[in-house]
Write a structure and sequence with these properties.
With 292 residues, the chain is of the alpha+beta class. The protein has 9 helices and 11 strands.
């Protein structure tokens, strides 16, 4: 079951002996991504149907996101105080090894069904760290890379306007580089009127109307359909903006900038805390439903 991607496994040393521990794997990020080497058009379409009809409600149900959004580096100005967990380079420098990179299963899937990504030619762009990286390497799903190579790939992802989405913790086990056309999370959240409420993000974009020339580049770059040009001025819909900063570096007049929210969202310390919080909330909601 472990090698087929149905459960997770960790190994701890206890008194000099390796002890294996097993746990249920979530659908995403988990069972779905583990099918990278067995992906078929039929399976991918079935998953997409489930994401649309059932998974999204479950994913958003607790209000505790499994993943979060951090800004691309070029969007954060020097005078802005940015926490270490929102700083991409600092995350990579302190993340712990090994680091593994794998193909993006979402873009691989859309390639298989003849609907390739409109944002990027990158395919090998999803990262895992420490125990998660060892799993990917052991299963032949990814390859080990240095910090330098990881940063080079992430720089290309930022250049192409992808959203950086690490796991929702201060020490994430993964970083995804996502687009609005392929990503199972972004593409389906995009169908909601106010998707920003379901993302953990500490930033938002804002346009200076006096500087904007209405070129529309920011509108094209946005993965969440949050920016639109109205009367030759770009306008940001904050109910859709997830603070990724993809719109900022290519603004020809420097009219759009990323700002930090007044109330900062501090992520859980590690992945275990994140998933325990999600499970506790699910149990609480289940008890409430049962009592009605």
């Amino acid at each position: 079951m472990y090698f087929k991607g149905l459960i997770n496994r960790g190994i701890r040393q206890e008194d000099g002996v390796d002890i294996k521990y097993y746990a249920s794997a979530p659908l995403a990020i988990g069972m779905f991504e583990y099918q990278l080497n067995r992906l078929t058009p039929e399976f991918f379409k079935d998953v997409e149907t489930y994401f649309e009809q059932g998974f999204l409600d479950e994913f958003n149900k607790t209000g505790i996101p499994q993943i979060r959004t951090i800004p691309i580096e070029q969007t954060v100005e020097h005078e802005q105080v940015i926490a270490s967990y929102d700083n991409l380079k600092q995350v990579i420098e302190t993340i712990g090894g090994p680091i593994a990179v794998a193909e993006c299963i979402c873009r691989k899937g859309t390639d298989l069904i003849g609907e390739p990504c409109k944002k990027t030619h990158l395919r090998e762009s999803c990262f895992s760290f420490r125990t998660a990286a060892k799993v990917y390497i052991e299963k032949g799903l990814g390859r080990e890379v240095s910090k330098e190579e990881a940063l080079k790939i992430l720089e290309k992802a930022q250049e192409d306007g992808l959203v950086l989405q690490p796991g929702n913790s201060q020490r994430p086990m993964n970083i995804c580089t996502c687009c609005g056309c392929c990503c199972g999370v972004l593409s389906h959240q995009n169908q909601l009127e106010e998707p920003a409420q379901f993302f953990a993000t500490n930033f938002y974009a804002q346009v200076d109307p006096d500087e904007c020339i209405g070129c529309g580049t920011c509108e094209e770059r946005c993965n969440m359909n949050a920016v639109h040009v109205e009367d030759a001025i770009a306008v940001v819909n904050l109910a859709r903006c997830i603070g990724c900063g993809a719109c900022v570096p290519t603004c020809t007049s420097e009219a759009i900038k990323l700002y930090k929210k007044e109330e900062e969202i501090i992520p859980p310390k590690n992945t275990i805390e994140t998933y325990l919080a999600i499970m506790d909330k699910k149990a609480e909601l289940a008890r409430e439903e049962k009592s009605i």
